[in-house]
Amino acid sequence: MSQSTNPLTRARKAIEARVQTITLDNGSRTNIGTNLRTGWLNEVLTTKGLPSSLCVLQLASGLPPQKGPHALKVFKGFYVIGLASVGLDNYEDMLDDMEVDLLESLVPPDGQPCRWLPRTSGFSGITVGAPEHFPPGQGQKYAGVLIPVHVHTIIQDKS
Length: 159
Hints:
This protein is α+β, with helices and mostly antiparallel strands.
């Protein structure tokens, strides 16, 4: 499989790769990196045989792009969603563990560049929003923590 040259695709792939590092073997509190799905949350949740905890990477609204001289700065939006089955004992604790794992994985140290984004690919940073918890309901057995993420991507003019 060839690697995409589209910087927006590379942004998504970079988040996927980063979330997949969230494992107990890597010192995390959960193994949600081993259970990463991509797509729309409502479609993923209708999949049969889902594990009791997982992570979903879903597209989200971006921020307004900024046009500069010879480049366009795009803020591609994603939701990183940790999910826990309410059948688990203490699923609230599992959501808290997922939240900490995701934040520790995605948020760069204050004032430093995001080291897990490829610097040579036009990525200039990342903004991680405030986590939001949501309960199960309407027949859905998963509770979740949703974290908005915007990858700052510079797309050079071709001219």
